[in-house]
């Protein structure tokens, strides 16, 4: 609902013309003079020359002091100029002359609303409604007054009064639905939304808002029915297809979703979003080979291409094994050597599979084409670290600090590597804390802080930070290993061994696994249950 108060000068023109026709008690000459000044004022007003219009209207009032309608236009001009005190003073003076004048009361109410005095506006508007209960302007302003006060009960009362005048206004029903939703009355809001959709002949924007509300309520069947009705009327609308597909996926109606997606793809064959979600639905049904084929149909120019690549890689690895997944990554690089993100994707995927040497080859090939790419340099550093070549990794990444002094990834990488090497620990702490200011909820950066504190011998601080890191990243094997090391250093060996065992169950890299296994082996055997 608009809360800006529009000043209705056009609505006053008829009243002003009546004043001209009926005249006043002034002599004919004075009336002619007043009429001349009034015409000048009106022309100035229409040209946006409000100061001139105001000056001429005062000349009108000099000739006819009791003229009411020029006074109304003056009030309106002061309102437009934002001079609300003068507008209010004029309105009160005019109301002494005509205390029940509807136009004056409405103008005064607008002044109060512009001054953010909605309670006074409401009282004034009720005076209009006492004599004219169906006055739409007064009801609309009263609704604005209640909404400004956040008086939802009063706003709903005003809406009910307006709906008695316009029971089939979908705009009013939509506003009622919004107010009911804000008032915490979801069931009533739902009915108002559905009524608004029906009366609007299922306008897209209303259907989408109503459907979104129903979904937030958890009323998926009603939302589904609403979208299906819209599609029945608008069978070519892509937005309704998307909304309905989301509902069916949420409800896990895989067969219906598949049917709808194939129907949508017949109408929109170039829509790669539909194609991607068809692949997802086929996966959910266990038809992974079909899904693999569908994902492969998504072209590099699609916004879903990166997601499709991830699914192809994951499915290839699941269905055919790691070597097939590596082969897919190699072919991908050869097919798109001009895209640095492809090298990054392939190298990162190889690292996740614990094939760090192959990942290093991928990223080095990328850096030959894109030698300054930040993501590729960081990935090469990660892969060198994976291979235990920490000094090389540091020498590679540390120069990035000159180009990216505030980058949390660069800061954390350099700081953590310093800690691993046991050098520049104060600098390492400063870098890591700077990175944390950028990403305070990043578990891996909190872990870095804990690790540098541990290396400095500040064990109690280190324990506090590592426990926070574990909460943020509970399944990271290296973070858990660090927690075990810190507990061990504090003499809490039994707890450390429990954490080491958990870390071992989660580790993915051979190098990490061998290191953590040795720590578990040094623990006393768990008592048999």
Could you outline the blueprint of secondary structure elements for this entry?
Elements: H1 9-22, H2 28-46, H3 50-63, H4 68-80, H5 84-97, H6 102-114, H7 118-131, H8 136-148, H9 152-165, H10 170-182, H11 186-199, H12 204-217, H13 220-233, H14 238-250, H15 254-267, H16 272-284, H17 288-296, H18 305-320, H19 322-335, H20 340-352, H21 356-369, H22 374-386, H23 390-397, H24 400-403, H25 408-421, H26 425-438, H27 443-455, H28 459-472, H29 477-489, H30 493-506, H31 510-521
InterPro entries: CellSynth/LPSAsmb/PSIAsmb, TPR-like_helical_dom_sf, TPR_2, TPR_rpt
Keywords: Repeat, TPR repeat
TPR repeats: 204-237, 443-476
Description of the molecule:
The protein has helices at 9-22, 28-46, 50-63, 68-80, 84-97, 102-114, 118-131, 136-148, 152-165, 170-182, 186-199, 204-217, 220-233, 238-250, 254-267, 272-284, 288-296, 305-320, 322-335, 340-352, 356-369, 374-386, 390-397, 400-403, 408-421, 425-438, 443-455, 459-472, 477-489, 493-506, 510-521. The protein has a domain at 428-528: Serine Threonine Protein Phosphatase 5, Tetratricopeptide repeat. Mean pLDDT is 87; it is low at 1-5 and 9-27. The protein has 529 residues and is mostly helical. The two termini are 67 Å apart. Helix 20 (340-352) packs parallel to helix 22 (374-386) and helix 21 runs antiparallel to helix 22 (374-386). The relative contact order is 0.03. It contains 31 helices and no strands.
Please summarize what this structure is:
The protein is 77% helix and 0% strand. It is mainly α and 529 residues long. It has a domain at 428-528: Tetratricopeptide repeat domain (Serine Threonine Protein Phosphatase 5, Tetratricopeptide repeat, Alpha Horseshoe).
């Amino acid at each position: 609902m608009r809360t800006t108060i529009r000043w209705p000068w056009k609505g006053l023109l008829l009243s002003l013309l009546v004043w001209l026709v009926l005249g006043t008690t002034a002599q004919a000459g004075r009336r002619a003079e007043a009429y001349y000044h009034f015409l000048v004022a009106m022309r100035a007003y229409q040209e946006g020359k409000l100061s001139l219009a105001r000056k001429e209207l005062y000349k009108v009032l000099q000739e006819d002091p009791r003229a009411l309608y020029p006074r109304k236009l003056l009030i309106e001009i002061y309102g437009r100029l934002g001079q609300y005190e003068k507008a209010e003073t004029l309105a009160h003076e005019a109301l002494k002359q005509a205390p029940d004048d509807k136009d004056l009361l409405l103008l005064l109410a607008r002044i109060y609303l512009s001054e953010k005095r909605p309670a006074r506006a409401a009282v004034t508007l009720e005076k209009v409604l006492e004599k004219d209960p169906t006055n739409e302007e007064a009801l609309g302003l009263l609704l604005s007054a209640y909404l400004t006060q956040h008086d939802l009960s009063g706003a709903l009362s005003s809406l009910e009064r307006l709906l008695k005048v316009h029971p089939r206004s979908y705009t009013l029903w939509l506003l009622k639905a919004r107010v009911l939703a804000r008032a915490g009355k979801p069931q009533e809001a739902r009915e108002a939304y559905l009524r608004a959709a029906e009366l609007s002949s299922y306008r897209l924007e209303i259907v989408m808002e109503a459907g979104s509300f129903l979904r937030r309520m958890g009323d998926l069947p009603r939302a589904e029915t609403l979208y299906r009705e819209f599609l029945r009327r608008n069978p070519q609308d892509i937005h309704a297809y998307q909304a309905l597909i989301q509902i069916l996926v949420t409800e896990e109606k895989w067969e219906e979703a598949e049917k709808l997606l194939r129907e949508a793809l017949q109408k929109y064959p170039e829509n790669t979003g539909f194609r991607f979600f068809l692949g997802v639905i086929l996966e959910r049904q266990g038809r992974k080979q079909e899904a693999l084929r569908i994902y492969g149909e998504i072209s590099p120019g699609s916004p879903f291409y990166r997601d499709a690549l991830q699914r192809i890689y994951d499915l290839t690895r699941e269905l055919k094994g790691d070597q097939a997944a590596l082969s897919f990554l190699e072919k991908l690089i050869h097919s798109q050597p001009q895209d640095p993100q492809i090298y990054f994707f392939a190298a990162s995927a190889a690292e996740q599979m614990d094939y760090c040497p192959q990942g290093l080859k991928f990223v080095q090939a990328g850096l030959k084409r894109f030698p300054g790419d930040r993501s590729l340099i960081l990935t090469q550093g990660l892969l060198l670290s994976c291979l235990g070549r920490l000094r090389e990794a540091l020498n590679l990444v540390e120069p990035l600090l000159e180009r990216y002094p505030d980058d949390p990834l660069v800061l954390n990488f350099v700081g953590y590597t310093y800690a691993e090497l046991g050098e520049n620990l104060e600098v390492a702490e400063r870098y890591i804390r700077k990175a944390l200011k950028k990403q305070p909820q990043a578990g891996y950066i909190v872990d870095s802080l804990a690790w540098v504190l541990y290396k400095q011998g500040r064990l109690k601080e280190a324990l506090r930070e590592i426990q926070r890191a574990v909460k943020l990243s509970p399944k990271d094997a290296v973070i858990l290993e660090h927690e075990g090391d810190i507990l061990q250093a504090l003499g809490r060996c039994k707890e450390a061994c429990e954490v080491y065992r958990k870390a071992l169950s989660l580790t993915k890299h051979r190098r990490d696994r061998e290191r953590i296994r040795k720590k578990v082996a040094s623990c006393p055997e768990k008592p048999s249950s």
